[in-house]
Design goal:
CATH architecture of the largest domain: Orthogonal Bundle
Number of domains: 5
Helix content: 40-55%
Strand order of the largest sheet: 6-5-4-7-8
Number of helices: 30
Number of strands: 15
Largest sheet: 5 strands, mixed
Structural class: alpha/beta
Shape: globular
Strand content: 5-15%
Length: 713
């Protein structure tokens, strides 16, 4: 990669150039983000996964830019306009905006007013004014009269069209005006259709709106743009046309000199035309796109953080679970699962109106709880959840068995997916949905990787942001979560294995096929027996795969096989076996990391090895904890200002956090009500699915809106 790109990435990410150079080399060698950030800290200077992912993103950006530069240079050269200075300017670009500005005068374009004027032979007249070589443009214009140019005014008009287009294609002028527009205000006005349409009412706050574009919150900008697409608003930037045209004239005079009064009048008219007809529409669109890109990045960042928290939710672990998908008229779907998530039984009970078969439902539940030795109940949080929780409180649960409320977001998407049909070809969607709820309690990460993250209800305006950037971020987030937790090689589904560094869907299927044919993997080395899984893939994935009870205790840790000799030497120096060293925190604490540094194993790696040996295979996720809503709050009409209630954070956005307090509609803690003055990032205070205490500020029964204040966690 060229040094100009390396330098830009380093400056943009506040890193050293050698860190970027090493990352580029590692990616070129087939490295993955989890592997590089976890096992190549010496080369990256300890960069975390987010920084490594950012470098990978910019590598892709500049690879595409380099391809674009070759196209630009080829086209300019074909037009006979490529000078050494222009080539150097193009090759030195690190901004796509600057690159396109340089290319604009030479880019093939549709027929324009300037094109028509040139066809009428008026370019020499435009050149006279452009080069400030006329004091009387009207007199000079008389020499260009011909068919299509009946008089001097027509000639001057055509010449101004040519000058206006040249001004609009000037890179310095475009960048100066962009800088001005970036400091202006974005405006929104309601359209006639919006004023008359009831469905536009949700955008009423924006019907006469103005806000500095540089400071507009991401969610507001995305809402404005969505309303414009739907036809309810007209969006613009409140540019000062007179000052803008004056700025263009000043730039012209600075480069060409001040023209005589008569010529100056023509130039000024061309400047006004260049602004109103060509530059304002173009640059307004560009600046709005810039703002949209910024809003996209912010929103995608929020989505990624929410997804990370969701995937790393505390697992209950391997317990026999009864999953309950609650409902009224269609009943509560039940699914009994063994400790590995396999379906043992399913059925339906009808404890609620209109059937009210409470006694029958109690009898069925008691039998299933006993027959399948149920250790936990997973209750979906959808319709009838509160009523079903009340009903379950009357059931005599086995000792130690609790009822856990589980988010249903995306369960219906999973139940109708190809993955669900493959897992349960003989069951209908209701059974699959219930199974998913139960498995989410046991291991949220293993189950949620089967669902497109966009369907998990943890983002804002996810359908309005750049879909390629969103997919990149979400894939990176899922990959990070899977690899930070680690994957049991002998029990993981192919959907989970696919996110392990270096594996992917195709190899994951091959791993599962090998396992089905040959039985459990005895050790990590056996992975090399899987077809098409070579040494490079093994290097990338091995450290993130776990083998429980295998022949080598290190196979159940995050110690990479390439570092096994280091551990062997540590154990030999202590006069004990590797098995005795693994998990012995006291012995690990007495080992000097510096004593095991080698040319191929640096200090950060040795320190990571010692941490892992002290607590091998430590799951970074917290322990699961139960929760109960206020029993006296059943409807929004029950809420009163000043009430304090328990709640669960269901979504975090740039403007606040939504909290489930046990009603059909979630309440909102606005960012200003989180107890931190000037807070701009709610994720600094709250986490997804965190248990909190909130105070009711207001409850709008008609609009189903609940305003809350955070009072405790």
């Amino acid at each position: 990669m060229k040094s100009i790109y390396i330098d830009f990435i380093a400056g943009h990410l506040a890193l050293k150039t050698w860190q970027i150079e090493n990352c580029v080399e590692l990616f070129a060698d087939g490295g993955t983000i989890p592997f590089i950030s976890r096992y190549r800290k010496e080369k990256t200077g300890g960069m975390d996964d987010a920084s490594v992912a950012a470098v990978k993103h910019w590598i892709g950006v500049f690879e595409e830019m380099e391809k674009r530069k070759q196209t630009v240079l080829a086209n300019i050269e074909a037009a006979g306009a490529l000078t050494p200075e222009l080539r150097a300017a193009v090759e030195g670009c690190v901004s796509s905006t600057v690159l396109e500005d340089l290319y604009l005068p030479y880019r093939p374009k549709r027929r324009t007013r300037a094109t028509a004027a040139k066809e009428l032979g008026l370019e020499p007249l435009a050149d006279l004014m452009w080069n400030v070589r006329t004091k009387n443009p009207a007199a000079d214009a008389a020499r260009f009269l011909r068919e299509g140019v009946p008089d001097a005014d027509a000639a001057l008009s055509g010449a101004r069209d040519i000058i206006a287009e040249r001004l609009s294609e000037s890179a310095p002028i475009r960048e100066n005006l962009r800088a001005v527009l970036r400091q202006r205000r974005i405006t929104a006005k309601v359209t006639k259709a919006g004023a008359e349409a009831p469905e536009a009412d949700k955008y009423r706050a924006y019907f006469n709106f103005s806000f500095p574009i540089v400071r507009i919150p991401a969610h507001q900008l995305l809402a404005l743009l969505r309303a414009e697409r739907e036809g309810w608003l007209k969006i613009g930037i409140d540019a000062d046309s007179a000052k803008s045209a004056s700025g263009i004239r000043y730039a012209f005079c600075k480069e060409h000199g001040y023209p005589a009064p008569a010529c100056d009048e023509q130039i000024s008219m061309a400047c006004e035309d260049a602004w109103k007809r060509l530059l304002e529409p173009s640059l307004t669109g560009e600046v709005l796109r810039e703002a949209k890109e910024k809003a996209d990045r912010e929103s995608i960042g929020v989505f990624g953080e929410n997804l990370r928290q969701l995937l790393l939710e505390a697992p209950l672990g391997q317990k026999r679970v009864l999953a309950v998908d609650p409902g009224f008229r269609n009943g509560c779907k039940l699914a009994a699962l063994d400790e590995h998530g396999a379906l043992l039984w399913h059925g339906i009970i009808f404890p609620h109106p209109p059937q009210n078969e409470k006694i029958k439902a109690l009898t069925t539940l008691s039998r299933i709880l006993s027959e399948y030795r149920i250790e936990a109940v997973a209750l979906g949080n959808g319709t009838a959840s509160r009523e079903t929780a009340d009903f379950l409180s009357k059931v005599n649960l086995p000792e130690g068995c609790r009822v856990w409320t589980v988010s249903e977001d995306g369960a219906s998407i999973y139940s109708a997916s190809d993955i669900a049909r493959e897992e349960f070809p003989d069951e209908d969607v209701t059974v699959r949905g219930a199974v998913s709820i139960g498995r989410r309690l046991m291991d949220p990460l293993a189950e949620l990787v089967k669902i497109d993250p966009k369907n998990l209800g943890v983002g804002q305006y996810q359908h309005d942001v750049d879909q390629d950037l969103l997919r990149e971020k979400l894939d990176e987030t899922v990959e990070f979560c899977v690899n930070s937790v680690g994957v049991n090689l002998n029990t993981a589904s192919p959907y989970l294995l696919a996110y392990v560094a270096g594996i992917g869907p195709s190899l994951a299927a091959s791993v599962c096929a090998w396992r089905a044919e040959n039985g459990a993997f005895p050790d990590r080395k056996a992975l090399l027996s899987v077809p098409r899984l070579g040494a490079k893939t093994f290097e990338q994935c091995a450290g993130f795969l776990r083998i429980k009870g295998g022949s080598n205790p290190l196979d159940d840790s995050a110690v990479h096989p390439e570092s096994y000799p280091v551990v062997t030497k540590m154990a030999a120096d202590l006069g004990i076996s590797v098995q005795e060293l693994v998990g012995n925190a006291a012995l690990c604490a007495g080992i000097r990391a510096e004593d095991y540094v080698t040319p191929s194993t640096g200090l950060p790696t040795v320190q990571d090895i010692l941490k892992e040996l002290a607590k091998p295979g430590l799951d970074p996720r917290e322990q699961a904890s139960d929760f109960a809503f206020d029993a006296d709050v059943r409807d929004i009409a029950d809420l009163r200002p000043g009430m304090e209630l328990p709640g669960i954070v269901t979504n975090i956005t740039a403007f606040g956090a939504f909290v489930d307090i046990g009603l059909h509609d979630n309440g909102l803690i606005h960012v200003s009500q989180m107890g931190v003055k000037g807070l701009r990032d709610p994720s600094r205070v709250l986490k997804l699915h965190q248990k909190v205490r909130v105070e009711v500020l207001s409850a709008d029964v008609e609009r189903n809106r609940i305003a809350l204040r955070l009072v405790g966690k």
